[in-house]
Structures are given as C-alpha cells and as structure tokens.
Amino acid sequence: MNRALFYRKFGRPEQVLTLECLNKLTIKENCIRVQMLYAPINASDLIPITGAYQHRITLPQIAGYEGIGKVIQAPKSYQQLIGKRVLPLRGEGTWQSLVDSPAEYAVPVPDYIEDKIAARAYINPVAAWLMIKQFSPKGKHILVTAAGSDCAKLLCKLAIKFAALSVTVICRSDNHAQYYNKYAIKHIKQDDKQIIEYFARQADIVFDAVGGKLAETILDHMPDSSEFISYGLLSGTFFQPKKRLPKVHWFHIRHYLKQISQHQWLKMFDDIWPILDTNDLNVANLFAFNDWQAAIKTYRQPYRNNKPLLAFG
Predict the structure, then answer these.
(1) What mean pLDDT value characterizes the chain?
(2) What is the model's pLDDT at position 178?
(3) Which CATH superfamily is domain 2-120+281-311 in?
(4) Could you give the CA distance from residue 200 to residue 168 in angstroms, rounded to a whole number?
C-alpha cells in the first residue's frame, strides 16, 4: 500500500494537501520503483501547490520534487540498481512512500554520502551549480540574498571556489554567521538599507531568492553593466525592474534540464557530491510522514536554522 500527499485543488499546502493510501499501479516500462527514505521540504515544493504555476500543472498531483530511497523494482537493463540508494528524480512527486521514476534519470548515491544529505542533493545544489556555471563569478564581486538557505550557502561556496573577487551575503539574522565567517564571506543585515545600497553599487552579479522590495532596492543601485539573477520569491512578492539595465535573468532549473543529455545529467551529480559538506548545510530536522503538517509549520518558522525532512520509515 502506498501513502501519498495529494493536492486536488490549489491553495495553502496545509489546507489542500491530503495524506491518502492507495494501491500503486503497475510500474511503467523503463521506470524504477523506489521505497522512499527521506524527502525535504523546499519552497519549490510548496509554491506550486498554491497555484502559482497552475498554467503548467494538471491536477491531481502528488507533492514533492526530491528525496532519497532504495530501488525495489527495475527493468532488466537496470537490475544493478535494485537494493541501491538513488535519487528518484524527474518522475512522480516524492512525497509518497513508493515513487516510480525514469530509470535513465535515477541518480545513484555514493556510499560516502549519508541519507539526510543525499535527500536534498537536487533542488538547491543543482540550482547553485547551474547558476554558477551559467554566470561565472571569476574576478567579480558577488552579492547573494537569503543567507539562511542551503542554496545561498552553496552559491557563496562555489563563487569562492571559482575565483570570485569578493562574496557578500544578505542575512535576516546572525544564525548563520558562523558558516560565513568560516569562509571569510562578508555578511550584512537585510534591514540595513544603506549598506545594502553600498554593496549593490559594487556588485557585478547578484543572486536573489527573495524578490519584493529587497530586489527592487538592489536593482535601483546596481551598475548598468552588472547582472541580476532571480531564482526565487521567498518574500512572496513579485518585483518589476524599473529600467532596461542592469539585465535581469529569471532562473528556473527546468529550462536548463531540457538542454542537457542523460550523460551530462549524471555527470553533474559527480561534480556536486564532493561539495555537499554535512557541516555546511542546515541540520536535518526529521518528521514522521504522518506529521507532515508539523514539518511544514517548522519550515515556515522565521530565522529557522534547520531543514525539515519527511521520514518514511
């Protein structure tokens, strides 16, 4: 019996998600079936449920975009995966105990990566990796918002790795100061408008996941030659660029995935695994699958310094 978090209408996740038990249909050809272990809660999981992207979502849907599990069924050409830990990606929603996903996109997890880290190796690490590859930080001044997120931490770490001239991050609190001090990354307060304007004027590239007034403030003070990459709207508020320059890029993982081959897809994770340091990411906070509402409530807590994960055991 499969347990899954469905949404059959759009709205606030806590109100429209329902935990349902149902028999799993016969597995499709060229797919694997995965017994899930953990799945994280990300903004990218919750926002589609609200209806923000309803033009490309057909209801009903099972929530969740990433996680880790063990393969229990596989086609003949992928029998070597049975019993192995994988990321079952680019298939069904992952907030369910049994996930079917395309075998060719299943990402094997190296033995040295623990479950609670591997479970969140897709959304944030892949976004950070693709953005850094697309917008090279070499020899440039980098400004990053949403300092408390794993994606921001990885963006900063990768910017240093790829020879940024300087990296500055905007924080709502001091909860993550220890991490940024470790890498000699300057951190400034989100409520200090004057200092944000100063660093915006120095920035060559801005990676923003907040949007709203913060994005507008930064854009108003950036040089015309710089670039602003928007990859999220954690504030829940859209923003409108007031002038043609600096150039604004709207980053979405799905647009980039359409352009890469299966080999490039798997190779990307070979590059990502070594940068996932347990000590650098937010501490995992485990919730039994039945307690999914408490997990979402924890995710919404301001100044949170942990990462809620649904546990299917």
Answers:
(1) 95
(2) 85
(3) Medium-chain alcohol dehydrogenases, catalytic domain (3.90.180.10)
(4) 10
